TrEMBL record:
One of its GO terms (cellular component) is plasma membrane. InterPro entries: CHR_Transporter (IPR052518), Chromate_transpt (IPR003370). It is a multi-pass membrane protein. GO terms for molecular function: chromate transmembrane transporter activity. Belongs to the chromate ion transporter (CHR) (TC 2.A.51) family. The keyword Isomerase does not apply. The chain crosses the membrane at residues 7-28, 72-98, 110-134, 146-167. This is Chromate transporter. It comes from the Bacteria. Keywords: Cell membrane, Membrane, Transmembrane, Transmembrane helix. The keyword Transcription regulation does not apply. Its main location: membrane.
Length: 187
């Protein structure tokens, strides 16, 4: 039963997510909250690891969550579930897309989808930022007398340093990720 639940959940995520892996993160979080496959902090760690490993974020996340919930077979089933909708949709759309490539409805539909994708990505960024910048067990929704008790200053420092390096230099982002990881360990 767990395998069927994994497959259907990740099939739904793959089917209803537009905009790539980052747009899938809110849906993955929602399904994970419903079935409690992994903790929220583990999910954020999975996203970070998925960004550094080869392959799409959604596929890597599905594989890890599936493995955690149902072993090797669970990882395979979740991965197939998240990738199968894309494969099927590409096969179907490819046959129709070129027939109607100049049709104005196609163009308008794609313009309508763009803001939704941006909203999903911003939502995922806020959830990741909340986990990254605030100490464990504290939410952005909570009020506090002293904001410095809430904020993890080392994470803010690493974020600002990484952002400056990305914007002001031509250092490869992989090197910046490695430097940030080392700083995290040292600090």
């Amino acid at each position: 039963m767990e395998y069927l639940r994994l497959f259907l959940s990740f099939f739904k995520i793959g089917l209803f997510s537009f905009g790539g892996g980052y747009a899938m993160i809110p849906l993955i979080q929602s399904e994970n909250a419903m079935y409690n496959w992994i903790s929220s902090s583990d999910l954020i760690d999975i996203i970070a690891i998925s960004e550094m490993t080869p392959g799409p974020v959604a596929v890597n996340s599905a594989t890890f969550i599936g493995y955690n919930a149902g072993g090797i077979l669970g990882g395979i089933i979740a991965t197939i579930g998240v990738t199968l909708p894309s494969l099927l949709l590409v096969l179907i759309v490819a046959n129709v897309f070129f027939k109607f490539s100049k049709h104005p409805l196609k163009t308008m539909a794609f313009y309508g989808i763009r803001p939704v994708i941006a909203g999903l990505i911003i939502s995922a960024a806020l959830v990741v930022a909340e986990t990254a910048f605030f100490k464990s067990g504290i939410s952005l929704n909570e009020t506090a007398e002293n904001i410095f008790q809430l904020i993890s200053l080392q994470n803010v420092f690493i974020f600002v340093l990484s952002l400056l390096l990305l914007l002001k230099t031509k250092i490869n982002p992989v090197i910046i990720i490695l430097i940030s990881g080392i700083l995290g360990v040292l600090i």
